[in-house]
Specification:
Blueprint lengths: L2 H8 L9 H15 L3 H10 L5 H10 L6
Helix pairs in contact: 2-4
């Protein structure tokens, strides 16, 4: 069994679909938890200098997907 096959066998695939409003609400909530606004996060991304691993992960998740 390959690693990919083993991984698939161990975990169920989960797909969550969000409306644009739900996505926006989740993005703002995540920014609030980090004490950031979108402009600050975007600035960190442009400098490639994030205040935390969580901030970088959030940018990877929401990046330029929406103009918040």
């Amino acid at each position: 069994m390959t690693i990919q096959e083993q991984r698939s066998a161990e975990y169920d695939d989960i797909i969550t679909e969000l409306t644009e409003d739900e996505f926006r609400e989740a993005a703002y909530a995540a920014l609030d938890r980090l004490g950031l606004n979108y402009a600050q996060l975007r600035d960190m991304a442009s400098r490639r200098d994030f205040s935390s691993a969580q901030a970088q992960a959030l940018w990877v998740s929401i990046g330029g997907a929406l103009d918040l």
